[in-house]
């Protein structure tokens, strides 16, 4: 893998140098070396700008595609989550009405009878005075 990366980098550098030499040799004979280099730099700036615009267009297209995919999958998922939340809410309501209330009623009845038997038998506990604690 490292060997392929090094060979690719060296190959790209050779192509880059050949392009510069070719563009330099294409210049007119009455141009100075500095004018030729300026023209080469302008060509590379334009090519870099074109590459940047192409990459930005590709990224924009990918983002649009991603948003469309997410929209198509998230909306049904949110509807399913909403339905599940309603089911959980209804189940909790049913459990509280059908199971907790009768158990609480029985517990209250037991506590009432226990207190009644304590009062009748005279075995009530004295409630401690909070100020003396």
Automatic annotation (TrEMBL):
Q: Per its UniProt entry, which superkingdom is the organism in? A: Bacteria
Which UniProt keywords are listed?
Membrane, Transmembrane, Transmembrane helix
Q: Does the keyword Transmembrane helix apply?
A: yes
Give TM regions.
Answer: 7-26, 41-67
Protein's name according to its UniProt entry: Uncharacterized protein
Q: Which organism is it from?
A: uncultured Thermomicrobiales bacterium
């Amino acid at each position: 893998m490292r060997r392929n990366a090094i060979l690719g980098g060296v190959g790209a550098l050779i192509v880059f140098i050949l392009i510069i030499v070719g563009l330099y040799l294409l210049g007119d004979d009455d141009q100075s070396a500095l004018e030729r280099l300026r023209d080469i730099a302008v060509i590379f700036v334009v090519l870099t700008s074109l590459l940047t615009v192409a990459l930005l267009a590709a990224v924009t297209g990918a983002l649009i595609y991603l948003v469309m995919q997410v929209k198509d999958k998230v909306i049904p998922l949110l509807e399913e989550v909403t339905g599940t939340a309603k089911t959980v809410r209804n189940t909790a309501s049913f459990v509280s009405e059908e199971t907790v209330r009768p158990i609480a009623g029985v517990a209250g009845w037991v506590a009432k009878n226990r207190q009644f038997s304590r009062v009748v038998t005279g075995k009530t506990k004295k409630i401690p005075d909070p100020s003396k604690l």
